[in-house]
Amino acid sequence: MKLRAVYPGSFDPVTNGHVDLIQRSATIFDQVIVGILRNAEKAPLFSVEERVEMMEEAVKRFKNVTVTAFGGLLVGFVEETGASVIVRGIRAVSDYEYELQMALMNRRLSTKVETVFMMPAETYSYLSSRLVKEIAQLGGSIHGLVPNVVERRLKKKFQALRIMPKGH
Ligand code: PNS
Q: Using CA atoms, how far apart are residues 141 and 160, in angstroms rounded to an integer?
């Protein structure tokens, strides 16, 4: 039987920490499906289409990894794809509480799905999409922190936002 895992997240945008985790997952599971949340609550910087495009570019070298957008409950999406595992990354102890809460709630919602926590390389343990966006917005270098496609798109995005008149 093939072991299929879903790696879910907002990925607004994907960082090298996420890619590191995807690479590690791809060596453990037969198939990894990256599930990109069509954010209902958060207002993402990138549209779901942009996030999917960037992720596809970032993971195209991994032959057993696919990228799909999803809405609604994560466990519903996981069951639909035929996966039995949710992969989540834990960088520091501070991530643990929220992740534990989600994992236990997801287990309550579906007993067929198990959550597996993985650690990215320590070089990425302080990296987050939020910080990357902040640095890029303030003109700092994000080189080496995100895939090249994301670096280009972030520069373009903030340039476009800067030249837009107020209120847009
Ligand atoms: O990258 P993020 O924002 O930490 O990812 C959070 C995500 C997408 C895994 C979480 O928000 C989620 O699963 N959303 C789908 C809705 C859902 O199933 N909610 C109940 C979770 S217990």
A: 18
